[in-house]
């Protein structure tokens, strides 16, 4: 790790004054390229975050897995009765929805303080800013993998394996990783500049939890109103991974809306990052 930090902290070579200064687009691209070359450092920092978060804990990150399992068991029995649904059909849906939503919620929360929480490192070590965003994504992916144990147990108990249809979740999750990196950069920069954005984001996320099919199934909506579901970006992104893992093939509208939302997110992130990259160190 020390060698990687020394590599990251090297001072840039003196710029040839005969050459034009780098453009904001070029600097942003260099930042992303340098972060990619430091993937080992990103891996080490992400794993260090997990170790520090659960230092001294008996079960480590599995405490979160245990709490997720208890919540799924409690909510499954209650809401299956409220919605008049078969428990064997509803519990796999609920467990997978809560685990995936937990990843999204934790990612948004960490991304909102991504740069401000790394203030000391940003001020003392020269590293690409996209590396901090990738660090957030990586540690949340590890927590997600721990919580997927709950989903596997539920699917095994009710024998509702998705089969080969579950492989369709892989490209959806790959898109999740791209969106997660873009969202971490976007929220990290905005929240570093405007410190009142994190509580606003938290309130909006809590509201979206109730209007997104997480604890209730999309089938409960009247057929004439289901065309509104893809207008919710959280539904499209969630369903793109959730449906294949439940043995269902997402509709074309789901893929289309998720793709459009991802393009819009990545474009907005890139434009903002090109504009404010040089100011982030002064905002934290």
Structural class: mainly alpha
Instruction: Bin the helical content.
Output: over 70%
Count of structural domains: 1
Strand content: under 5%
Mean pLDDT: 83
Number of helices, counting only DSSP H or I runs of 4 residues or more: 13
Main sheet properties: none
Stretches where pLDDT falls below 50 for ≥5 residues? 4-17
Overall geometry: globular
Map the helices and strands:
Elements: H1 2-8, H2 24-37, H3 39-53, H4 62-82, H5 87-112, H6 114-117, H7 119-124, H8 129-158, H9 169-193, H10 197-211, H11 233-245, H12 252-276, H13 280-283
Compact summary:
The chain has 284 residues and is an all-alpha fold.
Explain this structure.
There is one protein chain. The chain has one domain. About 5% of the residues have low confidence. By secondary structure, the chain is mainly α. Helix 8 packs across helix 9. Helices cover 72% and strands 0% of the residues.
Summary keywords:
284 residues, mainly alpha, 13 helices
